[in-house]
Amino acid sequence: MGIFTSSTTTCPALPTPVNGKYQSWLRRYGIRKIANKVSDAAPISGSLTFNQLSIYIAGPCMGVVCLISISLMLLHATHLSIPAEQTKIIRITALIPIYAIIQFATIYLGTSAIYLLPWMNFFESIALITFVLLVCDYLSPNVKGQNGYVDVHDSSSANDDDAHGVAMAMSQKVRRLAAQYIAVATLVAIATDITQATGVYCNNSNSVHFAHIWLTIIRAVSSAVAIVAIIKFTTAQNRKLPRQRIMFKLVAFKLIVFLNLLQTIIFSFVGARVTPTATFSYLDLTVSLPAIIYCFEMVIFSVVFHFAYSFRPYIINKSSNSSYQGGALGVFGIAAAFNPVDLVREIVDEI
C-alpha cells in the first residue's frame, strides 16, 4: 500500500465561515468564482469583501513593482557595456516582478492558485544560479579590465593564481548545488500540479498521507542547501571584489529567497490549522493575505535593487572608444538576458 493510497487519504474539505448565508450575497453582487471558489466570506465593509480589498491593494503594488524593476532592467540594457554581467543582473531583477505578478494572479485563482505557486520556486532557482554565475564572472580574469569596472585580484604571483584556482574550484561545487535546486524545483512544481489534479496533494492538511507535506519538505531542504552554499561562497569572495559590493547584492537578493522559503513553510503549516470567520474565508487567510504581504515586500525590494544592482558602474566614459551593445532601446540586451538557449548553455557549461 503506497503512501498516498491509505484509507485516510480523503482530503478534508476546506474550512467554511461560521456563517454561510453570504453565498446568496455573492451571487447577488456577481462575485466571479474561478475553479472551485474564490471567497465565501461576508463583506468587511459595505459591499467590500477581503478578496476584493486584496485586489485593490496587491494590484497597485504589482504595478509599482513592474514599473520600478523594468526601469532597472532597461537601464542596464541601454547601458550594456559588459554583457556577460549585465544580462545576468537583468535576469536576477526579473524575479521581483515575476513574484508580484504570480501572487496577484493567485488572488483571482482562488483554490486553483496551488497550480501556479510552485512555479515561483522554479523562477527563484534560475535566479539563484544566475547570481552564482554573476559572482564567477566577477572573479574570472577573462573579464578583467572591461570598462575599468571589474576589479579581480592581480594574478601575477603564484599565490594569487593558487587563490584564484581555489575560488573557481569552490564556485564549481556551489554551481552544482545551485543547479540541483533547479531540478528539484521543477520536479516539485510538476508533482504539485499532478497530485493536486488527482486529489492527493491536499494543501489544507499536513498529514503524511498527502503529497503536500512531503513536497514542502523536499523543496525546503533543496532550497536551504543551495542558499547556504551560495552564502558561504559569496562571503569567502567578498574581500576580493570590493567594488562589486557582492555582499550587498547577496543580501538584497537572498532576502527575497529567504522570505519566500520562510513564508511558504509558515503558510503551509498554518493552512492546515486556520479557522475562517464570517468575514475572512479560508482562501482569504491562506491565499489573499500572503499575496498582499508578498506584493508589499516586492515593492521594497524593487527599490533596493536599484542600489544593489545599479547600472551606473557600467556607464562608459566619454573619453572611451567603447560603445554600448544593447541596441536600440536595449532590445538586444533584453533578448540576450531572456534567451533560454543561452541560459541553458551557461548552466551546462559551468557545472
Spatial extent as radius of gyration? 23 Å
Count of DSSP H/I helices: 11
Counting helices, strands and paired strands, the structural category is mainly alpha
Estimated helix fraction: 55-70%
Strand composition percent: under 5%
Provide the succession of SSEs. HHHHHHHHHHH
Oligomer state equals single chain
Spatial shape: globular
The largest β sheet comes out as: none
Strand elements, count? 0
Low-confidence stretches: 1-7, 17-36, 141-159
Q: What is the mean predicted local confidence, pLDDT?
A: 80
The first-to-last residue Cα distance is: 39 Å
Topology:
Blueprint: H1 23-28, H2 50-78, H3 83-93, H4 95-109, H5 118-139, H6 158-198, H7 211-237, H8 246-270, H9 282-308, H10 331-337, H11 340-350
Describe the protein.
It is a single chain. The protein has 351 residues and is mainly alpha-helical. The protein contains eleven helices and no strands. It is 63% helix and 0% strand. Residues 1-7, 17-36 and 141-159 have low confidence and may be disordered.
Outline of the structure:
With 351 residues, the chain is mainly alpha-helical.
Characteristics of this structure?
single chain, 351 residues, mainly alpha, globular, disordered N terminus
